[in-house]
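User: Could you go from structure to sequence for me? I need the amino acid at each position, not a summary. Structure tokens:
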């Protein structure tokens, strides 16, 4: 009797499996496959995470997204059709309410096709405090003249003074903001980007983020970007900001070009900025007689590295800098412009960090439009999206 019941149960089980298989409930149906990242970094004090779940389906079925679990599942909601993930409550970096209280929120997402075939994926959403979009690791390649005792072999203190300037200028913490004319004060932006000397080199070894090399670029075919031509090779530009510091003086001791910056999308082997040591940081030696004494040359050139153009529009009212809130101008500014200066029907914003030629003590601000253009370079498809992804994984 027992054996007969076992056989009957086995028969019913096999029959059920056969039915499921024939109706698409068996293994012949392939579940969707997630194509979105498993980790993402976002800012605090807003519901939108900026993360969008994405998945593909071999049969081309419509995919529906959902929350399947995770220790912080209750903190999230997701749009079933678009996969846009949001917080239920506004996260606060200073008062995290994730389960581990470490500002890393863990959730399990599901993707289900028309045949109820489902796949799941664990995702971690990290909250950044003080609305910092990104903290960029910096390596400074010092190319000194003659011998290690030459003043061009600048001190670490001088280098750190430049990092301090950058973090003030890009976070709207510079003390000279009060000099911005009243009509432009509402445009001033906190770019929400910070800079820090790297702690580990590309091989994972401890470093202070400074390389020092005898400058041999005066040789034939010398190039500051390459070790085999008298300079120093770039460290991976999808992980670091490379800054080459060299002697920018001419035979008369004057600085012809204080610096230059490579726009996104260029050669990764030359990616970064070049600054004359006389215009770098706020500690001597400095070209104070030329107004290059407050570290604003690096602020300006990193602006180019982040895809900002000069605001002067090439001295034409018909050419713009692709930013809406920087007024059109055709003025060729002197080193010390005096407000107000008017061109193209409006006041010139010569106190903007992306104004060329003017001295360090005449530029004080970025705008909200410039901030949006900078942030766009880190988004998907942007010129520095790989750097952003590597730094926020």
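Assistant: Here is the amino acid at each position, in order:
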């Amino acid at each position: 009797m027992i054996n007969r019941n076992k056989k009957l149960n086995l028969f019913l089980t096999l029959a059920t499996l056969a039915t499921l298989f024939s109706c698409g409930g068996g293994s012949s149906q392939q579940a969707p496959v997630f194509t979105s990242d498993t980790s993402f970094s976002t800012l605090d004090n807003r519901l939108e995470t900026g993360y969008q779940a994405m998945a593909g389906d071999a049969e081309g079925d419509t995919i529906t997204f959902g929350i399947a679990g995770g220790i912080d599942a209750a903190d999230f909601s997701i749009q079933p059709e678009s996969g846009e993930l949001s917080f239920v409550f506004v996260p606060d970096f200073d008062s995290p309410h994730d389960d581990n209280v470490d500002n890393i929120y863990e959730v399990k997402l599901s993707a289900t096709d028309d045949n109820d075939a489902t796949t799941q994926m664990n995702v971690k959403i990290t909250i950044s405090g003080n609305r910092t979009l990104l903290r960029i690791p910096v390596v400074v390649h010092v190319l000194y003249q003659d011998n290690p005792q030459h003043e061009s072999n600048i001190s670490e203190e001088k280098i750190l003074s430049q990092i301090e300037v950058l973090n003030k200028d890009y976070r709207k913490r510079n003390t000279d903001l009060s000099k911005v004319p009243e009509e432009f004060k509402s445009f001033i932006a906190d770019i929400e980007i910070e800079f820090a000397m790297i702690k580990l080199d590309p091989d994972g070894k401890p470093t202070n983020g400074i390389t020092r090399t005898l400058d041999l670029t005066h040789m034939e075919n010398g190039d500051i970007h390459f070790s085999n031509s008298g300079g120093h090779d770039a460290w991976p530009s999808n992980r670091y900001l490379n800054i080459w510091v060299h002697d920018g003086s001419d035979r008369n001791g004057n600085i012809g070009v204080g610096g230059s910056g490579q726009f996104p999308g260029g050669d990764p082997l030359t990616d970064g900025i070049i600054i004359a040591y006389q215009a770098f940081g706020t500690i001597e030696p400095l070209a104070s007689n030329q107004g290059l004494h407050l570290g604003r040359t690096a602020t300006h050139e990193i602006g180019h590295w982040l895809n900002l153009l000069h605001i002067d529009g090439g001295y034409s009212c018909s050419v713009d800098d692709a930013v809406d809130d920087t007024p059109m101008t055709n003025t060729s500014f002197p080193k010390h412009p005096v407000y107000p200066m008017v061109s193209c029907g409006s006041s010139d914003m010569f106190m903007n960090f992306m104004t060329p030629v003017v001295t360090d003590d005449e530029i004080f601000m970025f705008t909200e439009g410039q901030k949006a253009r900078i942030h766009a370079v880190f988004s998907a498809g942007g010129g520095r999206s790989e750097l952003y992804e590597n730094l926020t994984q």
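One structural detail worth keeping in mind: The mean pLDDT is 89.
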